[in-house]
Amino acid sequence: MTKKILVMTSLAGLLACGAAVAAQMPRSGSCGWENLNLNKSQVEQLQKLRYQHQERMIDLRADLKKKMLALKEQMTSSQTSEKTVDNAIDAVSAARSRMMKERFRHMMEVKSVLTPEQWKQFRKDMAQRRMHRRREGRGPRRGMRPGGSGMGPGMMGCPRTGVNPPPAPPTN
Prior knowledge:
Elements lengths: L1 H20 L18 H37 L5 H32 L2 H21 L36
C-alpha cells in the first residue's frame, strides 16, 4: 500500500506541474494566428478543427474526472485491495493517455492546414508564449481553478467567449 501512496503522490506532482506549464495564455483577443498570414479557407478550417477538438476534450476530461474520482474512492475505502487500486491507477493513466493523444492528433490536423512556413512560425509563436507564461509565473488555467469549466483558453490560445466571465483582477 505504501507503493500505491508513492505512485499517487507522484501522479499528483505531475498533475501540479502540468497545471503550471499549461498556464493561462495572454488575453490579447487573438488566436495566435496574426503572424501566419492565413487565407480565409485556412481560418475557417482552423476554427472548425478547434471546435471539434474542444468537443472531444470535454468528453475526455469528464472521463478522466470520473476515473480519478473512482481512484480516490478506492484509496479511501476501508475495504480496498491493492489490485483494485492498481486497476484504478491504470484507468487514470489510460484516460490521461487518451487526452495526450487527442492533443497530438489535433496539432497534426492544424499542421496539415498550414504551409511549412506557417507551421514554423506557429511553433515559434507558441514557444514564445510558453516562455512568456513561465516568466510571468501565471497560475493555473481558468478550468483548473475551483468552479472552472475545465476548458481553458484552448489549444490555439483563443479566448473563450460567453463561457466564463474574465477572472477577477488580483487583490494586493
